[in-house]
Amino acid sequence: MDLYDFIESNEARDVKLLQLLLTAGTHGCSYSRLLESLQVTPSTLAATVASLQQRLQAFDEAAQIRQCNEGKGRRLFLETQKPVLFDDLYRKLLRQSKEYQILATLLEKGKCRVDEFVAQLYMSKAAVFRKIKQLNLGLKSHAIKIKNGTLTGSEVEIRYLYYQLVLNSYDSEELAALAATFSARRYIKRFEARSKVKFSPHGEIKLCVWLDIALKRHFTGDKKFTGIPEETLHQLEVNPLYHMIRNWLFEIAKQYALALDEFEVYNIYIFVCSMDIIDFSATDPRHVEKYLALALPTVQQRNQYFMAALRQICAGFETQCSDASRIRMQYTLNQLHHRIQFFQGDFRLLAQPSDRVSINDQQLQHLETLASELTAIVAKDDPCCAAPAKRLFLTQHYVRLLMVTHVQIAKPIRIGLLLNDDWLATSAVMARLKLALAGMCSVVLEIAEAPATYDLLITSFKMSSAAIAAKYHYQINEIETTYDIDQIKSLLVSIIREQAAISSQF
């Protein structure tokens, strides 16, 4: 499902323009690129600029989109006094859109006649049918369809769509406020006590949202589409976690006089096993490992394939990975592999902050290649991963997992300078290198001394480097003039490729 499927075409242009301007930052975005990216005429671009500026002034009265014709040609810049977040504008437009309101109504009420939409949205019948047709195009890939005033398809996928739509419609503070009003929230504490795991604040909010959706859909969903695969149900009959969830859920049902069926137990189980909700800072790692041991056999097999392949491709990466990082990685991997087992699609519309990891392009390319190799190994002969969309889903999440692990165990590249006892020249070179290499990778520059070992040692031609250990050497022949920064960067690339800040290859 695309980011712009739920908002009007003119509003989508505003959002795309904001994305381009925010990405360009202080450098601005060229006029020609804006025309090409938005696929609009100059007059439409001018109207879009005016529309976006008006929208932004609702967040910041001083916001303006300025044009400049100097230097690199005609460019547009976004200038604000307050930080402008893309998510804020998108959420506002999302909740205002007709498609969103139609879908949200169907998800909550279960059924709604066209005449009701006409009255609710102040639209003609023909316009409502057009909106429903557009929505069905976006939902097709997830085997969900709006038909006869209701949503048809797997109840699991419908609830998952509902869940993702809620998470993307509200910011973290609004979600926390919604969760705080959930009457069964106190029962989550009982679940934590029994399972001996602590949910993170965001994880608790996620679980509250899912429980609230389960309660609403229990009364409005179509029970014809709530079947549980027999093989899975047979495996769950002897699963302690599944039985604990059943007992916990039936306690809640008894308190509220609800008649729950086995599907509702299954519905909570697959969510707990598929989403990252544990607070590792407040949970004993031993209890996390006990939880991991309860994974379904098919999921355990995927986990084992991944870890075995990673060890083979990146020999020794675990030596740099702490026990806490290893368990965290295995937990994330376990949740991901359950997720592709139980859910068909990824309805996430907005990137989460955890995805925005500080990593340079060279390292990202390396991790993307590694993720593709791991996907090919894990997905081989796995019917659950046969569809190209599932493999792409795996690869994208493997990249995120590898990036997080990369940052957790990354080590900066250590560069030593030994320049003919000329401290003034050494300081000048160090300052220039620090500026030139900024953003390429994490670098520590220091005056080289024995017995330290460096990834890269930079020396002058008069100074012997034999007494100081280093993996790579670069010699400056004329310290007073210039040195080849491109060659130094090339050496750093070689170091990155070797260690990639994740063991020797990871």
From TrEMBL:
Pfam families reported in the protein's UniProt record: Mga
This protein's UniProt keywords: Transcription, Transcription regulation
Annotated TM spans: none
Signal peptide: none
Residue span(s) of domain Mga helix-turn-helix: 87-165
Protein's UniProt name: Helix-turn-helix domain-containing protein
